[in-house]
Specification:
Number of domains: 1
CATH topology: MetI-like fold
Number of helices: 11
CATH superfamily: MetI-like
Radius of gyration: 25 Å
Order of helices and strands: HHHHHHHHHHH
CATH class: Mainly Alpha
Shape: globular
Helix content: over 70%
Strand content: under 5%
Largest sheet: none
CATH architecture: Orthogonal Bundle
Number of strands: 0
Structural class: mainly alpha
């Protein structure tokens, strides 16, 4: 009589994968010098308690609310202006880095020629360089170059996010059916026409969704860059922390939380409308 084997055939591979993950995790914890015992130390708990207790009540004076509103608008302006500048570079760079509009690929069943690939490598290398350096590092460099203020934050977001947007846009262009664009190219249409009618209708929703997501990330990044003097809510949080003004820090953090929630809801709304 045949009996059914109830053992999971993937048990051994899962066990080996778990052991490998633990073996790789331990050196990471060791070299990062992670020490969780400081969180339960009595001195740390008392100091954290005093720090958090200073957050209540949040500051709500008329002068501070006016300053808070100005910092919030500046944060939004930094993120929006940085994204606008990033798009100016990302859109043409993504078209050059993608093989979706390659003339050689259109005539060779989607496979670009060697020279076509070679010409795209410098553009892809530029996008890799732009996105490999974090925006906080660019902000530090621009603060030294142009001084304190939102200009450094705008330029930092523009450079880093142009690399991110350009890479993802190029991949999105290549992920859809390229035959309509190739047919337009072979019939004598220009690349801009082939893009507008052969590629863009299929990727518009995904492009907009990713762009709004990156704008949300830019809002968070602009706050972080404020700690190095790039303006906005981050710079005001840094100043309030230096003055041990816990109530002001609480109000600033709550404002930042509301800002991110509103950006997330806007992103959800746009994705729902375009679905």
């Amino acid at each position: 009589m045949l009996t059914r084997d109830t053992r999971d055939p993937a048990t051994r591979s899962r066990l080996l994968f778990t052991l490998l993950a633990l073996a790789l995790l331990w050196p990471g914890i060791h070299f990062s010098e992670l020490d969780l015992s400081v969180l339960v130390a009595s001195d740390s708990q008392s100091e954290m308690g005093r720090f958090v207790s200073a957050f209540w009540p949040p500051a709500h004076g008329e002068a501070f609310i006016e300053l808070l509103l100005q910092a919030t608008l500046q944060t939004l302006a930094i993120a929006t202006a940085g994204m606008a500048l990033a798009l100016l570079l990302a859109v043409p760079a993504s078209l050059l880095a993608s093989r979706a509009l390659s003339l050689s690929a259109a005539s060779r069943a989607g496979h670009p020629s060697y020279w076509g690939q070679l010409l795209r490598w410098p553009v892809r290398g530029l996008l890799i360089f732009l996105r490999s350096v974090p925006e906080i590092v660019w902000a530090l460099l621009f603060v030294r170059a142009v001084g304190l203020g939102p200009t450094a934050g705008v330029l930092a977001i523009a450079i880093t996010y142009s690399g991110m947007l350009g890479k993802v846009y190029a991949e999105i262009f290549e992920s859809v059916d390229q035959r309509p664009a190739h047919a337009l190219l072979q019939s004598g249409s220009g690349r801009l026409t082939a893009f507008c009618y052969g590629i863009l209708p299929n990727v518009a929703a995904e492009l907009l969704s990713y762009t709004v997501y990156r704008w949300e990330c830019a809002i968070r990044a602009s706050v972080v860059m404020g700690f190095v003097g790039a303006g906005g809510l981050g710079q005001q949080i840094d100043l309030s922390l230096r003055m041990f003004a816990g109530g002001e820090v609480a109000s600033l953090l709550l404002t930042f939380l509301v800002l991110v929630l509103l950006a997330d809801q806007l992103s959800r709304l746009l994705r729902w409308r375009l679905a």
